């Protein structure tokens, strides 16, 4: 019988956190599924008792395979996603058992929702969204592709977050309105603990309370 395999791309601390979520995912599957880490740093061969394989070895070794990308850097995530698509390898969406997902929530492929994440109502989320522990997205939000939430991000209602934005640990984003959503621009970075009260332009780093652009 052919062994199925799930590869966790990223042999790192975050990869170790993702491992139990993958185990939850396959718990009810009665077929034999192997889990490995994927990393092209050949100095690491074992992590959490599992093999660490270079991508090329993983690709050639298993017939039935899929991948979870456990890398916070959104640009790297996008490159890996493109590589997987080119090689015909599917991305898995991973969702902790204790997540709360309410009503009318759309999520594109490759999402990774860590424990205690809440998504409420009328939410649209793009590709490869990462939400770390205790984060939430409230009503009427639109989130682009390759957006990353660190732990405890508070994304309140009527907020639009564009592609490749990074929201730091404990950041609070003030609620917008239906006629004027608060917008976090493409590639913007919201610093740890920042309180965002107004729009953040693309490719801008904001910090503090209230959040202001970081001076170069």
TrEMBL record:
NCBIfam families tied to this protein: NeuD_NnaD
Organism classification: Bacteria, Pseudomonadati, Pseudomonadota, Gammaproteobacteria, Alteromonadales
A matching Pfam family: PglD_N
Site (Increases basicity of active site His): 140
Record-given protein name: PglD N-terminal domain-containing protein
Entries under SUPFAM superfamilies matching the protein: Trimeric LpxA-like enzymes
Family: Belongs to the transferase hexapeptide repeat family.
InterPro entries recorded: AcTrfase_PglD-like, PglD_N, Trans_hexapeptide_repeat, Trimer_LpxA-like_sf
């Amino acid at each position: 019988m052919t062994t199925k395999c799930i590869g966790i791309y990223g042999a790192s601390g975050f990869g170790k956190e993702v491992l139990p979520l993958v185990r939850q995912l396959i718990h009810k599957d009665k077929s034999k599924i192997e889990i490995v880490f994927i990393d092209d740093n050949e100095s690491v061969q074992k992590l959490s008792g599992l093999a660490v394989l270079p991508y090329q070895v993983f690709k050639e070794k298993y017939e039935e395979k899929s991948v979870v990308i456990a890398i916070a850097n959104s640009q790297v995530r996008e490159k890996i996603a493109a590589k997987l698509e080119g090689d015909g390898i599917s991305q898995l969406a991973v969702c902790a058992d204790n997540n709360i997902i309410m009503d009318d929530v759309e999520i594109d492929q490759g999402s990774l929702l860590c424990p205690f994440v809440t998504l409420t109502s009328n939410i649209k989320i793009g590709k490869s969204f990462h939400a770390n522990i205790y984060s939430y997205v409230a009503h009427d939000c639109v989130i682009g592709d390759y957006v990353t939430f660190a732990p405890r991000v508070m994304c309140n209602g009527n907020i639009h977050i564009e592609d490749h934005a990074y929201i730091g640990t404990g950041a609070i984003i003030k609620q917008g309105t239906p006629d004027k959503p608060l917008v976090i621009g493409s590639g913007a970075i919201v610093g740890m603990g920042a309180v965002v009260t107004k729009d953040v332009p693309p490719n801008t780093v904001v910090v503090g309370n209230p959040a202001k652009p970081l001076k170069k």
